[in-house]
């Protein structure tokens, strides 16, 4: 365990100081792109205006013989575009793969000043985060980067789920965590063949009542893991996300899965197909009435202190802080979406 006094120390001489607070950033969807595909790279500038985060995927779904092309393609697209408020992330290859070290060294060396977050797959325990944490500090020092690159873990192995709490509190570099249902299903030896979502065989049967027909209700396979991940993240002030939904032909099921995770506390999900972007916006955007009320709180308490009554409800410093987070997020969304800007009154 790292002692409290050392927790926020930079891990290399000359590396930027670790963040003490999460930046307020809207991250309703982490949109995956394959950087080795030239046609897709050419569209990244437009895409960046439509999504909250563009993630260059270097790991699974990129064939082994395209790994280097994906890495250099990512560097090219990072250099060629101004991402503005849109987050720029990579999903690097797993630490036990032959590509992981060069992914980090080459990408941080070339475009580390543009990279916000590294998504680390197949995280098993705090030791995986500590390894990347130190390596990033060394590279940040070498390349004189001004701000630390954050780490986002994918929760997708049985051991990772067992260690989820220590992963969440492993480093001030932790941005958040995503559920990886496909690898997790394999790691757990679940009897499924899907990327997220439910399964028709997993459910409960109503009680026997003579000869009456019994109803069968399908249940959510991911409830336990998402709730466990949300607790670990919320307790450590980092962000929980639902991961991928692989059936692009079933937008209703995708929306149901995203909404379940939102209701349980997740702040966003991955989008692997353009049709999923609108769903994520719908599900994960702050509620219009909530934003309007939050704005009234912020307006009523210009310096954020004291107490005021609004519609019979007491507001004080603590509700002001909650309201400020909602208003700041809504402003970021309003900047890029005129319809929501009008609805929010921003
Ligand atoms: C994502 O990486 C998954 O395995 O579901
Ligand atoms: Mg995976």
TrEMBL record:
User: What InterPro entries would the database entry show?
Assistant: Aldolase/citrate-lyase_domain (IPR005000), Citrate_lyase_beta/mcl1/mcl2 (IPR011206), Pyrv/PenolPyrv_kinase-like_dom (IPR015813), Pyrv_kinase-like_dom_sf (IPR040442)
Residue ranges of domain HpcH/HpaI aldolase/citrate lyase in the record = 49-194
Organism equals: Methylopila jiangsuensis
Q: Which GO terms describe its molecular function?
A: lyase activity; magnesium ion binding
Keyword Lyase annotated:
yes
Q: What is this protein called?
A: Malyl-CoA/beta-methylmalyl-CoA/citramalyl-CoA lyase
Give the UniProt family note. Answer: Belongs to the HpcH/HpaI aldolase family.
Sorted alphabetically, the Gene Ontology BP terms of this entry are: oxaloacetate metabolic process
Needed cofactors: Mg(2+)
Q: Does the keyword Signal apply?
A: no
Residues involved in Mg(2+) binding: 156, 183
Record-annotated residues binding substrate?
Answer: 91, 156
Q: Which gene codes for it?
A: mclA
Keyword terms: Lyase, Magnesium, Metal-binding
């Amino acid at each position: 365990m790292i002692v409290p006094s050392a927790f926020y120390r930079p891990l290399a001489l000359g590396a930027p100081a670790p963040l003490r607070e999460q930046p307020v950033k809207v991250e309703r969807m982490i949109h995956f792109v394959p950087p080795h595909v030239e046609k897709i790279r050419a569209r990244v500038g437009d895409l960046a205006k439509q999504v909250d985060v563009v993630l260059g995927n270097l790991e699974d779904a990129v064939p082994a013989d395209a790994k280097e092309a994906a890495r250099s393609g990512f560097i090219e697209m990072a250099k060629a575009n101004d991402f503005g408020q849109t987050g720029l992330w990579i999903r690097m290859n797993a630490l036990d793969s032959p590509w992981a070290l060069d992914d980090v060294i080459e990408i941080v060396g070339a475009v580390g000043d543009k990279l916000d977050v590294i998504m680390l797959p197949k995280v098993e325990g705090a030791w995986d985060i500590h390894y990347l944490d130190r390596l990033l500090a060394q590279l940040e020092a070498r390349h004189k980067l001004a701000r630390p690159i954050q780490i986002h873990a994918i929760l997708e192995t049985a051991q990772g789920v067992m260690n989820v709490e220590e992963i969440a509190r492993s480093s001030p570099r932790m941005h958040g965590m995503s559920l990886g249902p496909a690898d997790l299903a394999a790691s757990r030896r679940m009897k499924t063949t899907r990327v997220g979502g439910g399964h028709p065989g997993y459910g409960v049967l109503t009680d026997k009542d003579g000869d009456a027909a019994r109803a069968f209700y399908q249940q959510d396979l991911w409830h336990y893991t998402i709730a466990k991940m949300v607790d670990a993240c919320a307790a450590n002030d980092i962000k929980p996300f639902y991961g991928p939904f692989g059936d692009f032909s079933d937008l209703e099921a995708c929306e149901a899965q995203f909404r379940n995770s939102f209701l349980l506390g997740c702040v966003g999900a991955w989008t692997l197909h353009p049709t999923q972007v609108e769903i994520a916006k719908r599900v994960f955007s702050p509620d219009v009435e909530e934003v309007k009320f939050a704005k009234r709180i912020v307006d009523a308490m210009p310096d954020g202190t004291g107490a005021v009554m609004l519609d019979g409800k007491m507001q004080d410093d603590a509700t002001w802080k909650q309201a400020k987070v909602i208003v700041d997020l809504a402003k970021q969304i309003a900047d890029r979406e005129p319809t929501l800007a009008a609805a929010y009154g921003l």
